[in-house]
Amino acid sequence: MAQVSKLQYVDSKLGAPTTGQQTTRVIWNTIENPGTTSSLEFFKNFQGLTPGQTNLQNNKLDSMESMVVKSLWFCQLDGNGVLTAMGGSVAQTVSVFIGNEQVVKNLPIHFNQGFNGQAFDRLHFNGGINSDGLTTASAFAQVAVPCEVRLLTDIVLPPQVTIRVVVEGNSAAYGTGAVVCALSGYGKIFSAGSSF
């Protein structure tokens, strides 16, 4: 089912508004100074975060908004704002909860990091790794890339339903900077009508 049709179907079944501005949608949440831990829970704490650290007020979409999630993005920044390997390249899994239902269960994400290999979907072949066209002096050769998990099955985020993303890894080193989780896809945002 196409993403537009899937979103319209779910919205109509839930009695949610089917009107609204269609758009590419990304929502994100940041955890500051996570240190070394075995678990991170995103979309839990919003207090004191700036618009650059999150674009939500709480862990659910507005009553007039909904979204189809096509990929999960993770990045880790050190204290100077430089991208580093997520969790120090420790084996990690991600689980996604929509309301009370777990829609992604213990999906490994460490294979999708640019330092260590290829994404499952081969979208990022040799991402972040030296290749024939790049020298070690090249800025591109040493760049860590965000970890992307492209979902085979789209996840629907209905309006006013809680969102939780949990990353687990055995004593993963997330450091003193920040770790960001972003959900990327297609959505509907509130549209006041044709007068705007």
How does the major sheet shape up? 5 strands, antiparallel
Number of strands: 9
Beta-strand content estimate: 35-45%
**Radius of gyration computed on alpha carbons:** 18 Å
**Coarse morphology:** globular
Helical residue percent band: under 10%
Average pLDDT works out at 79
Count of structural domains? 1
Whole-Å distance between the termini?
Answer: 31 Å
Enumerate how many helices there are, as a single number. 1
Name the helix and strand elements from N-terminus to C-terminus, one letter apiece: HEEEEEEEEE
- What is the subunit organization of this protein? single chain
Low-confidence stretches: 115-143
Name the structural class: mainly beta
Characterise this structure.
There is one protein chain. The model is unreliable at 115-143 (pLDDT under 50). The chain is globular, with a radius of gyration of 18 Å. The strands form two sheets. Strands 1, 3, 4, 7 and 9 form a five-stranded antiparallel β-sheet that branches. A four-stranded antiparallel β-sheet has the order 2-8-5-6, with no helix packed on it. Helix content is 6%, strand content 42%. With 196 residues, the protein is mainly β. The protein has one helix spanning 3-14, and strands at 21-32, 36-42, 66-77, 83-84, 92-98, 101-108, 147-157, 163-173, 178-189. The chain starts with a helix and ends in a 7-residue tail after the last strand. The chain has one domain (3-14, 30-181). A hairpin with a 2-residue loop joins strand 5 and strand 6.
